[in-house]
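**User:**
Everyone, produce one record:

**Assistant:**
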Amino acid sequence: MGTQGIVTTITRQEWLEPAEVRVQKLLHNAFASGGRGGQKVKNFLHGTWLGHPLHVILTDVPIGAWTAALVFDLLEVTSQRREFAVAAEKSIAVGLVGAAGAAVTGLTDWQDIDPPARRVGLVHGLINVAGVALFATSLILRKRKARSSGRILAALGYAVATAAAYLGGNLVYEQGIGVDHANREKLPEKFVPVFSESELGDGELRRAEHDGVPILLVRRGKRIFALAETCSHLGGPLSEGKLRGNSVQCPWHGSRFALEDGRVLDGPAVHPQPCLEARVRNGKIELRRFKPDAERKMAPSKASPSKSSDAQESEEKTGTGG
């Protein structure tokens, strides 16, 4: 059976579904019971403050530490030097601490994914638990002077952790977990008309489209905001979400983004939404990719010097979306 066949076999294990649902519900309820404080903890564990999944960073700690432990074990066997034995024990201990952090952040991310990735993620976590148990037992045996048995269990633990890492790679590269799902490449570089101004009411979430890329439009008072409509977390349609003040909440997993600049206000998303500049001309809402202030200052002005600022304002209403 090939590696892809292993993943396929896992996704077909329907008997795992009750456990998946119960654990996800338990995690959701645990964070929800904390109110806004619970959401802040959840945001931290997702890595919204980092702009990158925190779990992915923390997984490097046990992998690196346990790899070092195996190297130190080999050096101890070949040289019979005590310092390598101590280094191996410390490396295993560091790996166990890192694994605890990776487990907490991994569970936080896992609660907001759907089948079939949910099942692969569950098995990924269970295999990791087995790997941690083997390394923990290895460390206990070493402390009890059963170093040979400890080295054997460490080698087995490393093999198990490697299998879990393969499933983790599948979640990222095949299932798209933790990657940016917002389409950033096809947003217009120059202003293009996408929607009639008269059809956009105040406080409405409307879906427009340019070159096959869906775009979210929102009017708040005199301003028009525009975001890529596909949620960066797992591709949810933001136009079907909720408007919360000057932010929009994804209908799928609750990620919340600021209309102003697309920054993540609440996870599970960690990647900001691409935002566009909006203006109204000849009754049409025109959009282009948002350009930072420095880039806009460098660009030559296209406004006619003969027109007053009032005349330009009547011709063009400009807003920045996020």
Notes: Confidence is low (pLDDT under 50) at residues 294-322. Residues 3-173 form one domain.
